[in-house]
From TrEMBL, chain B:
GO molecular function: sigma factor antagonist activity
Region of interest called Disordered, as start-end residue ranges on this chain: 198-223
Record GO biological process: regulation of translation
Organism: uncultured Frankineae bacterium
InterPro entries the UniProt entry points to: Anti-sigma-K/W_factor, RskA_C
GO cellular component: plasma membrane
Residue ranges, compositional bias (Acidic residues): 198-207
Protein name, UniProt field: Anti-sigma K factor RskA C-terminal domain-containing protein
Residue ranges of every copy of the Anti-sigma K factor RskA C-terminal domain listed in the record: 102-214
Length: 190, 223
């Protein structure tokens, strides 16, 4: 099947190579490009904002120091950063759990309820959100109406003032971009 | 029946029923596999929390730059705010499922209103840099009208810009007033078509006319 390929893919690839090559301005660009994604993962995985900010900073520090372990030919920069984020978050959670167990043992506090979304699901959902934000505006609008508002393609066409075939194409291409992103960077197996 | 088009398969994955396509997929393993993959993307997307993914507060970058001992200019926040490709003309509903019906109806109305010939198009601005603010922009002939809510009180002032991130060009239009409102005239000689986005930044009162790099709201310039 044909896969949608977009200019943003090429931009991301160029950034990945610059990052791997040790260009410090590429670190800043990587932060601008993926900082929101990484931070969203940390915020949703950790109970406190302060921990999440600490974790986000740690991800980029670790990534920069460990950039020799990143090979743009083997995976995307965004996916690699999210992998680091998962390890950083897991370390913080382990430390926090130990502390909590100690506190509970001392105070007999009830345990905090477990988060029901797995890290895999969270990563995938954030990737979709990131990919959605980077769709072309007309694709994003068509996909949004079809996905979230449950409109048929005929209703999407009418809402956007487009011919039926164009609305279909926007929906199909938008969906293909999201799918590709999940297949490239996603955590969940197919 | 021959293989359905990719368009039709996508619609089926989204739940638009079609007897022809459904019957084919039932007897064609390769189309069934394709449909499963598309459905799984749709499922994930429908569960996604499609709020924006704003950058963390500036202190986080500071911490990274300090920890790694970065040199200028890598350390500086780029004057041209980064994250190209973030215009968000489609304000995404946050709810999914039954509870989204009202939101769905409202957003369709919004789309229709924006497309209507009479109402000047109003476009939402997305929060950046960890801000919780909201904003809207309307283009009224040569005036950019910006309404904001929830901009934090800060040292300095909020400035409105026209942006072309692709070319790294920007035009300062003027500052928002105390209530977070601004009606700003686009200077004659500036071609609106050249600037796809509107940006609101927090500017320190330091006499430097350049963009601080501290963007708090951004969105597409209504066409």
């Amino acid at each position: 099947m044909l896969r949608a390929r977009r200019a943003s893919d090429d931009t991301d690839l160029a950034l990945a190579h610059a990052f791997a090559g040790g260009d410090e301005t590429a670190l800043r660009e990587a932060y601008d490009r993926f900082g929101g994604l990484v931070h969203a993962f940390c915020v949703r995985s950790l109970p406190s904002r302060a921990d999440a900010e600490e974790a986000t900073a740690q991800v980029f520090v670790n990534a920069w120091r460990g950039r020799s372990g990143f090979d743009p030919a083997r995976g995307s920069l965004g996916g690699w950063l999210l992998g680091i984020a998962r390890r950083v978050v897991a370390d913080i959670c382990t430390a926090a759990a130990r502390e909590r167990a100690l506190r509970e043992a001392l105070e007999q506090v009830r345990p905090v309820e477990e988060e029901s979304t797995s890290p895999d699901q969270l990563v995938d959902r954030l990737l979709v959100a990131d990919a959605m934000a980077r769709l072309r505006p007309e694709q994003r609008q068509a996909v949004g109406l079809a996905f979230y508002d449950g409109l048929t393609h005929a209703q999407v066409a009418s809402a956007m003032g487009l011919p039926l075939g164009t609305a279909k194409t926007h929906i199909r291409r938008g969906l293909a971009v999201l799918r590709r992103r999940l297949e490239v960077d996603g955590a969940a197996p197919e | 029946m021959p293989h359905p088009s990719e368009d039709d398969l996508a619609l089926l994955a989204l739940g638009e029923p079609s007897d022809d396509v459904g019957a084919h997929v039932g007897s064609c393993p390769s189309c069934a596999r394709e449909l499963r993959a598309l459905r799984s993307t749709v499922d994930t997307a429908r569960r996604a929390d499609l709020t924006d993914l704003p950058l963390p507060p500036a202190a986080v970058w500071q911490r990274i730059a300090d920890e790694l001992g970065l040199e200028e200019p890598a350390r500086a926040r780029t004057a041209t705010p980064a994250r190209p490709g973030r215009p968000t003309p489609w304000r995404r509903p946050l709810l999914v499922g039954g509870a989204a019906l009202l939101a769905a109806a409202a957003s369709v109305v919004t789309v229709l209103a924006v497309r209507g010939p009479t109402a000047p198009p109003e476009v939402p601005l997305s929060a950046l840099g960890g801000s919780d603010a909201t904003g809207r922009v309307v283009l009224d002939a040569r005036s950019v009208v910006v309404e904001t809510d929830g901009l934090p009180e800060a040292d300095g002032f909020y400035e409105v810009w026209l942006l072309d991130l692709g070319e790294g060009r920007m035009v300062a239009l003027g500052a928002l007033d105390d209530t977070g409102h601004g009606r700003l005239t686009v200077p004659a000689g500036v071609r609106l078509d050249d600037y796809p986005e509107v940006d609101v930044s927090l500017e320190p009162d330091d006499g430097d006319p350049a963009h601080s790099g501290d963007s708090v709201l951004r969105g597409p310039l209504p066409g």
